[in-house]
From TrEMBL:
Stretches assigned to the Acyl-CoA thioesterase 2 C-terminal domain: 163-279
Source organism of this protein record: Acinetobacter wuhouensis
Source superkingdom: Bacteria
A Pfam family that the UniProt record links to this protein: 4HBT_3
Protein name: Acyl-CoA thioesterase II
Biological process according to GO: acyl-CoA metabolic process; fatty acid catabolic process
Annotated InterPro entries: Acyl-CoA_hotdog, Acyl_CoA_thio, HotDog_dom_sf, TesB_ACOT8-like_N, TesB_C
GO cellular component, one term: cytosol
GO MF entries: fatty acyl-CoA hydrolase activity
Stretches assigned to the Acyl-CoA thioesterase-like N-terminal HotDog domain: 31-107
Source organism phylogeny: Bacteria, Pseudomonadati, Pseudomonadota, Gammaproteobacteria, Moraxellales
């Protein structure tokens, strides 16, 4: 029986079908709705397999809802291989239709000017309950028809800093933070930048859109709002390890036109290693 971490790696590790064509399998993490983080992670692996450099930025649009009962086909276009940078366009397709598009840029590591904003200060991860422990505490609030899906263990170990019960939402500040790491160490052929980056990309979409919902006291979990990721950008600033604790510090600055803008920063050992920007749908249901 494979570990949770190996199952996640297997999910993200798309299979090569042709030089620039890859196929990824799906998991029913949220029932029939395909988790956007899966497409982000798989598209990054697909593009990474066509170059020898780590990614430094990804800009993506979610075009259509994906399905969990079909595999995803990833078509990669080689736009440029320069001395310093390489650029790839990735299209994700299901049933003949494009559901996702991403432009991914890769760069050789180099030395240069260094600066970062001050790191946030939070207690250590072990001082907070895990997401799974919080689910158990709140399980009586979960509707019976949703309980099996909600109570599943997520692929990563997460310790929320300022958790809320999504089934009893209350108005709160537009800030949220979590510590996250894989359950097991990445080893052998998987302990390379593309898998660390893909797992971070996978997780980056998990709770980010909830940040702009917090000031309104509404939640995707109780049916009060229709929410989805619309676009997603990730910047990789330096090397990091997803099998060591990362702090994902998130905030939202504006909600309007049934959309919210969310920002996230990944910190490790006091260093800002990745930044994320996302616009999300937040359409209130009648």
């Amino acid at each position: 029986m494979e570990s949770i971490t190996q199952n996640l790696i297997n999910l993200l590790n798309v299979q090569k079908m042709d030089e620039y064509l890859f196929q990824g399998q799906c998991t029913d993490l949220f029932g029939t709705h395909l988790f956007g983080g899966q497409i982000l992670g798989q598209s990054l692996i697909a593009a990474s397999k066509t170059t020898d450099r780590p990614a430094h930025s990804l800009h993506a649009y979610f075009i259509r809802s994906g399905r969990t009962d079909l595999p995803v086909l990833y078509k990669v276009e080689n736009l440029r291989d320069g001395k310093s940078f390489a650029t790839r366009q990735v299209y994700a397709l299901q049933d003949g239709a494009v559901i996702f598009s991403a432009m991914i840029s890769f760069a050789k590591p180099e030395q240069g000017l260094e600066y970062q904003t001050a790191a946030p200060e939070y207690p250590v991860p072990e001082s907070f309950k895990s997401e799974q422990e919080l689910k158990i505490l709140n399980q009586d609030d979960i509707p019976e028809f949703m309980r099996e899906v909600v109570m599943r263990q997520f692929d990563l170990r997460m310790h929320p800093v300022n958790p809320v019960n999504p089934f009893r939402p209350e108005k709160a500040g537009a800030e949220y933070a979590e510590y996250v790491q894989t359950f097991d160490k990445l080893t052998n052929e998987f302990d390379i930048p593309m898998f660390h980056q893909a797992i971070l990309a996978y997780y980056s979409d998990y709770n980010l859109l909830t940040t702009s919902l917090r000031p309104h006291g509404i939640s995707y979990a109780n049916g009060g709002v229709r929410s989805a990721s619309l676009d997603h950008a990730i910047y990789f600033h330096s090397e990091f390890r997803v099998d060591d604790w990362l702090l994902y510090d998130m905030h939202a600055t504006r909600s309007s036109q049934s959309r919210g803008i969310n920002y996230g920063q990944f910190w490790q050992n006091g260093k800002l290693v990745s930044s994320v920007t996302q616009e999300s749908l937040m359409r209130v249901r009648p």
